[in-house]
Each structure stands twice: as C-alpha cells, then as structure tokens.
C-alpha cells in the first residue's frame, strides 16, 4: 500500500525536484499526485512499497537536515551581505500591498475590540 512521504503544500519547486532526485538516487519507487483544480488537495509524493518506506523516511530525514543547514547558511550570508528581505525592502518593493495588509489588520483588530468597547459604554 502506498504511503505519503511528502505533502506538496507550500513546498518550493526546487525542494520537490530535489526530493524526486533523492528518491531516484536511492532507487525508491514513487509516484506523484498533482494538486486538485480547486485547491482542496495540494498533491504529494507517495512511496509505492511499504518495505521501501522506511528507507525513504531515513533518506528524507537526512535530506531535510542537509537542506536546513544549507538554507540557514544562505540566510545568514544574505543578512551579512545586506540582501536579506526585510519589512522595509518589502515596503519599498510593494508599498500598496503592505499598506493594504496593515490597514486590513487594523480593521480586524478594531472589529475584535468593538464588543469590548460597546459593553463598557
């Protein structure tokens, strides 16, 4: 029976490609389901054989450790170089989007505070 190894929701394309390559390198049979048209299912990478699932999990854990270390090093390098994304770089790049989100947050906080304000009066 097939088992889900990786849910593809919020997984970048490069990571999914690396996982596929890792499974191929370990000769682990797998198949992939695509996201549903309406976004109910995000798709996934499934291991076809139960016996190979343990090996796939072990390989996946090692891959995730390596990727985590690599991504942390990349983020640290970007911070040292001053190229890391910050609130102000996002504000400079997309001011309308940032202001819209901030106004929406303030409106939601106001709606949450409204019952308290009405009960005090």
General description of the model:
The chain crosses the membrane at residues 98-119. This is Transmembrane protein. Keywords: Membrane, Transmembrane, Transmembrane helix. It comes from Dyella ginsengisoli. This protein is mainly alpha-helical and 121 residues long. Helix content is 64%, strand content 11%. The chain folds into two domains: 1-84, Alpha-Beta Plaits (2-Layer Sandwich), CATH 3.30.70; 85-121. The chain has helices at 13-25, 50-81, 87-93, 95-120, and strands at 3-7, 30-33, 44-47. A three-stranded antiparallel beta sheet has the order 1-3-2. The longest helix has 32 residues, at 50-81.
What is the strand and helix layout of this fold?
Elements: E1 3-7, H1 13-25, E2 30-33, E3 44-47, H2 50-81, H3 87-93, H4 95-120
Antiparallel strand pairs: 1-3, 2-3
Helix pairs in contact: 3-4
InterPro entries: DUF6164
Keywords: Membrane, Transmembrane, Transmembrane helix
Protein name: Transmembrane protein
Keywords for this entry:
Alpha-Beta Plaits, 4 helices, 2 domains, 121 residues, 3-stranded antiparallel β-sheet, mainly alpha, extended
Helix content: 55-70%
Distance between the termini: 62 Å
Class by SSE composition: mainly alpha
Q: Indicate the CATH architecture of the largest domain.
A: 2-Layer Sandwich
Any idea of the CATH class of the largest domain? Alpha Beta
Brief account:
The chain has 121 residues and is mainly alpha-helical. 64% of the residues lie in helices and 11% in strands.
């Amino acid at each position: 029976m097939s088992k889900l190894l990786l849910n593809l929701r919020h997984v970048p394309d490069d990571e999914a490609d690396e996982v596929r390559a890792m499974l191929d390198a370990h000769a682990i049979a797998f198949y992939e389901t695509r996201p549903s048209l309406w976004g109910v299912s995000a798709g996934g990478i499934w291991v076809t054989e139960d016996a190979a699932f343990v090996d796939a999990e072990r390989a996946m854990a090692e891959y995730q450790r390596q990727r985590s270390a690599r991504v942390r090093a990349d983020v640290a390098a970007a911070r040292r170089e001053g190229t890391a994304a910050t609130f102000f770089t996002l504000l400079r790049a997309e001011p309308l989007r940032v202001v819209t989100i901030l106004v929406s947050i303030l409106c939601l906080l106001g709606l949450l505070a409204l019952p308290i304000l009405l009960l005090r009066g």
